[in-house]
Amino acid sequence: MSRGESATRPRRRLRLLLGVLPVAILVLACAVPAFAEVTGAADNLRTGWYPDEPSLAPGSVTPSAFGQAFKTQLKGAILAQPLIANGTLLVVTEDDWAYGLDPITGAVRWEKNFGTPVKSSEFKSGEFTCTDINPTVGITSTPVIDTASNVAYFVSNSYLSGESGESGWYMHAVNLASGNDVSGFPVQISGKAENIAGVTLVGNKQLQRPALLMMEGVVYAGFGSHCDFGPYSGLIVGISTSGQLRTMWAVSNEGGSIWQSGGGLISDGPGQILFTTGNADGTPGKGDPEKGPGNKPPEGRLGESVVRLQVQAEGHLKATDFFSPSNSTELDETDFDLGSAAPIALPSQYFGTPADPNLLVQASKKGEMYLLNRSNLGGMKQGPGETDNIIEEKGLGEYGGVWDGFALWPGDGGYVYIPGVSKPGTGQENFDYLRYFKYGVEGEVPKLSVAATSTEEFGFGSGSPIVTSNGTSSGSAVLWITHCLNVEIGHCEKAELWAYNAVPVGGKLQRLWTAPIGFASKFSRPDANSGHIYVGNHEGDLFAFSSPVLTPSTMSLELGSVPAGSQRTEEVTFQNTGTPLKVSAVRTPSAPFEASGLPKVGAIIEPGQVITVPVTFSPTAPGSFTGSLGLTTEAGETKIAISGS
């Protein structure tokens, strides 16, 4: 893994891996693809964009109208992004526990332990102990959920036996409704790389940090080092949904971690995988002629690179394209790793030009930002004067280093959001600022330019952002991010979840709302679903925030035709799907209708609470009748129309 998850260890070399795309591959120019999976950062392009959240508009995210819906205590630190599918909120922890929660109330529907997590004290090299993830290392990466089969996949770290000694990595597949294991799982992940002789996955030397990728019946996981303790190599491992090891591909003989601060492996088409690596004994510029390796990916020397792999007919992986900065040797030797940040693919429906429709953004620990062509990543030293053959490069000491993922918003002309957490050009964990990059085109060439920079400092450990919106409707987008103060590195006891208007106001960032979330987990990413924002912390707390919402079971109740002197009773319900609500007024229907079970003025309706109201129609004479019933709370009046004849 990267130095990014360490607060106390001495300066060490970081080895990470970057995702690359082949020149010969035709990448479809399309919008954000529709996937049958729920995955980290919203989709397989890792855009961090949740476009179906109209209730989370800037005008609704205010201190008086938006608040905590629930807080549920779980066992173990929560580093992985929470995910919701088919009405279940999935949360996994570093104590090797997985939970299925009610997404409205936070109630635990099921919980299950998946082994004994490895104590941080077990990760040692000489006298140095790695406490990057503390006190235990269990389930660290964000899972993936197959919505069609309702199966969730995740990777755990646990002892091979007992409560000490050698540890291993396991792929799990569980039914999301029950937490029960799927047939054929768990699978211990072990073996040798297919592309480099002698490279193996070493259970107690490596970390599985990037969010999982599910593609064409295979779940892919990226591995890097744990605190740079060798021997290790960056690896991509694929396990089929039937529980078979399909592939194990290595970056180099040693090094080249695939870490990305937890950001996920990208797929932008069938059989395609992109990612970013850190430093390694094998980087493209080492041992090569002056000009470097050109456009062909150098097998076994893909540290400090963005790499594209293609799935071969037999299921193995092959590097087909790459980009490595012309100064990659310097990045390697000075610990300015490229792969401390997760790449983001820009959906071509909203970004790109006819000449360059498929874009990717990458940043580094040095603070440099790269805009790449996914259809031809650029190799190494292939530009004029042996410079980088890419669309745009900027930063060069102007921006702070990045240990995070990014997010985007395609509305209002398009934005990309990048949080920095180190001073420009230092590569040292301290603080920097959140930057809004505006997309544009100059002379038919795509460009990103800084549109606004936060005035607030973002300390090391601050999280990766997401954006919610009502499609691409102007003025509907909000950016959400966890914020750490510039305090002692690795300690974020007083973290907050912040919400910003996703478009600068008067050339400046507009902060809309904040809420405390306790001791934050480093690089954590919130999740959004049905008007709620979910985020976990290092203390095992899972928070949900929302607006006050009282949802009726129907907007109109038709009781049909009832003979005079008879009656009919039907039930309607009101459910609080947001924050606690106080009843300020009650609307009751008049005869011949009668409603019972309505709460009194002043009553508190708790999140998730369902109020059942029997409605009786008792006509005494022929005719058509109408009425209504309702409740008034902070959410306004929620009313149900009633009719009968």
Question: Which helices and strands appear, and what pairs or packs with what?
Answer:
Elements: E1 17-18, E2 37-38, E3 49-50, E4 67-73, E5 83-85, E6 88-92, E7 97-101, E8 108-113, E9 118-119, E10 124-125, E11 128-129, E12 136-137, E13 144-146, E14 151-159, E15 167-175, E16 187-189, E17 206-207, E18 213-215, E19 218-225, E20 235-240, E21 245-250, E22 272-277, E23 306-311, E24 317-323, H1 328-334, E25 344-346, E26 359-363, E27 369-373, E28 392-394, E29 407-409, E30 415-419, E31 431-432, E32 434-442, E33 445-453, E34 458-459, E35 466-468, E36 478-483, E37 495-501, E38 511-518, E39 527-529, E40 532-536, E41 541-546, E42 550-552, E43 556-558, E44 568-576, E45 581-582, E46 585-587, E47 593-595, E48 604-605, E49 610-617, E50 625-633, E51 636-644
Parallel strand pairs: 3-35, 43-51
Antiparallel strand pairs: 1-22, 2-13, 4-41, 5-6, 6-7, 7-8, 9-12, 10-11, 13-14, 14-15, 15-16, 17-19, 18-19, 19-20, 20-21, 22-23, 23-24, 25-26, 26-27, 27-28, 29-30, 30-32, 31-34, 32-33, 35-36, 36-37, 37-38, 39-40, 40-41, 42-44, 44-49, 45-48, 46-50, 47-49, 50-51
